[in-house]
Structure formats: structure tokens, C-alpha cells
Write a structure and sequence with these properties.
The protein is about 35% helix and about 25% strand. With about 500 residues, it is of the alpha/beta class. Strands 9-8-7-10-6-11-12-13-14-15-16 form an eleven-stranded mixed β-sheet, with helices on both faces. The chain has a six-stranded mixed β-sheet with strand order 17-18-22-19-20-21, sandwiched between helices. A hairpin with a 2-residue loop joins β8 and β9. α10 packs antiparallel against α11. The longest helix has 16 residues. The relative contact order is 0.08.
Amino acid sequence: MKLDAILTALHHYKRYGNGNPEITSLEMDSRAVKEGSLFICIKGFTVDGHEFALEAVKKGAAALLSEKPLNHLPGDIPVIVVNDTKRAMAVLADYFYDQPTHKLHLIGVTGTNGKTTTTHLIDHIFRNAGYKTGLIGTMYTKINDQQYEVKNTTPDSLTLQKTFKKMIEENVTHASMEVSSHALHMGRVHGCDFDVAVFTNLTQDHLDYHQTMEEYRNAKGLLFAQLGNKYDHHHPKFSILNGDDPASDYYRHMTSSHIVTYGIENECEIMAKDLKMNASGTSFLLVTPEGTFPVQMKLVGKFSVYNVLAAIAASLVSGVEIEKIIEAVESMEGVRGRFELVDCGQNFSVIIDYAHTPDSLDNLLKTVKELAKKKVILVVGCGGDRDRTKRPLMAKIAVQWADIPIFTSDNPRNEDPHQILKDMAAGVDGEPFHSIVDREEAIQFAISNAEEGDVVVIAGKGHETYQQIGDKKFDFDDRKVAIRAIQLKENK
């Protein structure tokens, strides 16, 4: 596509340099630039893309998008200057990749907890119904059966549009994605034409970034506000709201879309009643406008029921038959690192879970406590360079529910792990706990002290296969560490 054609998507800009080169790709990383690329200079938290403009030109960039004139460049290369390159990048990416989300049925899921499980449930339901699907989230991007690595829960606007374009090329018709509060606040999903927006819940997290719960709530509300204000009866928009979460009343007023609520406690369109839970799964009566149906699923816990209800509601408004939905829900095995059992034949249970917020840890431990025959042994930590205010809260929850709470490192990043544990300990009022900085030692200690019928819970990292210390990531998989510890115990 010619540069002049691409620039028709922008409302206002200044142009320096001449020529109308053929643009072969859009790039914001100078390392990815090739012959014919339009290099977009983005100011990041630690790196300013403007400083890499010359490098991009040397690698073959045909033009640059910038927030200031770049006089040091050789030749007469076109430099397009705009006020905000991030915002312009979203516009250009949508246009360059031929507006791929206009051709997809796109579902966005936001909330503090449950985004990963809910998007996986939606994906599983659609696949069971015979659709080709795409998924974007914390763990990976998936296009049909092919998985790709991701850096952020919700990628930047350029990566998103490239990914959606690839989905279209792979004949994907339905896509679901996790939408983080960071992504909404930073405009990463600008240009994404969502058909359905799903809200799971709102509890404390990310206050290091948003500062207040009100700002955190407002950021998530952007997903519902950005559904648009028009009514297209051929392509209706839907907001799926948790009727048991007070924040839903706020989001209800932020959107003009059709609203469908789900819940357990309050009267909603989609409800679960008569919940029964055991170690092998959960059963309930599913109440919908299409009737009431018994459901027996393999997922465990009340929090899992909420995720399932959200996925059911999103699938129903997307036109999937209720019988296909229930069939898919009942066959769902679970998601990596979400209430994941580690079974090596030992006579006690080991559960790996991503719970890293006060609410998710509380929900996890309540469920485990209901199932445990004897003691609950917990390994938990808090991440460095993140919301410090949740550390004492998580410690308080840990000692409330666990018989043997063990505080340890999560991803300390650039903080002193000993200080993180001190911050956690501030939330403990006289109750006993263990503090072991080394996470592997903490897991080994937990498993070595487990007896028949006990439950060991390893919380905080879930699916992650690394531990970040300083600016480096080291191989670390809670599941593998737990297996080694079990084998060591069994061989003694």
C-alpha cells in the first residue's frame, strides 16, 4: 500500500520530506524494520522510539511516523508528524490491515479475576459449536490450534491488528480476548470493534498504576463505553455484567448496548442455583431465558461457576445453541495454572493456581477449605514493583484460611524480596506463619510437611514458567518444582 493511501486514514498531520513509497509493513520495534517499513516512533516508559529512527532508516524504513521533526535523517525520507503516535498507530494499523475486527465476532473480557478462564471457556464453547476461533490473553495467543507467545495480557494496537489480520487469513470467525485495565487506559484496544463485552468482577489490584479503586474501575469501564452509541439491529452489541458485583451498576450507565446479567445471589437473566461441589467438580441448575438445565462440570468452586455463567451468557447472545453450550461446559477440563492438580500418585493433594490478588486468593482458599479433609498448606508471595498495599491483605487472608501459611518470593523484580515479605507480615496479627525467601525451598518445605489427606496450595504464578529477579527472567515452573519435591519425598 502506498504511503499516501495509508495517510488518508489520519485526520491531521504535518509532512516532511518527499516521495510516496510503497509501505510493506508497519513496525514500532526498530529491530523488526525491513525494506519498505513505516517505522512508528513510540515513547515508552523506559525507551523512546524516536532515538531509534536513524537505525530504522539504515535497516530500510521507507517512512517514519513521529511526534517531532527528525532533521538528522539522511536523504529526503518522508517523516509524518502527529501529536500522538500511539493513537495514530491504532488508526493506521486498523486501516493498513483492512479493519480485520469488522470481519470477526469479537468478545472482550475484562475484570480483576477470571479473564483467562472465561476466555478459554468461550473459546471452547465456540469450537464445540463448530466455529474456527482465535484467543488472545495472558498465557498466549491462539489461532485455531496454533499457539504464539505474548508479552502482555493485551498487546499493543499494532500487534493486535496484525494478529486479527492473521486470524482472518486462517478463516477464524469468532475471537475472544482478555482486556486489561492497563490496555484500556493506554488505548491499546483502540480500533477493535467488539461485539460483546464481558465483566467478571472488580477487586483490588494494579493500584500501583491506577492509584485508586475509582480510577481502576473507570479504566475497565472504557470497554463498555467503547461499544459505541448506535443500534445496528443486524449486528447488535452486548454487555455481559456480573449482577452480583456492585461495579456492574456503574458499567450499566456507561454503555448504550444491550445488557445481559448473570449471577448467583441476585436475580439475573442467567443464573446458577442449587450449587453442589466436591473434589471432582461442581453441579448446578442453569437458569436461562430458554429454560432451566442441569449442569455437571469438572471445574471446582463458586468462582468457577461465575466464570462459566459469564461464558454462557456471552455465547448465548452470540447465537450458540444452549445444548452446545452445556455440552462444552461439561467437557471443559480446566486451564493451565488455574486450580490445576499435580497428581504423582501421592496421598495428599497439590494445587497450582494463579491467584495473585486478595479476592482471588480468598476465593481459592475458601474453596480448598471446603474440600480439604485435613490441613491446608499454602505457599504464597507478592510481586515486586507492583501494588504494595495488597501485600498485608493477602497475608491476612493466608493466615485466616491456611493451617500452615508459608510466605515466599513471587516475582521480586527490582525489589528486595526480604522487604516484600516484611510488607506481607505487617498484615499478620499474632498468627503463626513461615517466611522462606527462596520459592523452591518454600515449595519443598510445604510438600515435605504434607501428610495424607492434606492439601498443598501453591499460589501466585500459575501458568508462568519463569521467575523475574531484577531485570532477568529465570526458568521456574511451580508445577515442575512441585513434582520434584513430591518425588524427593516419596523416595525418602
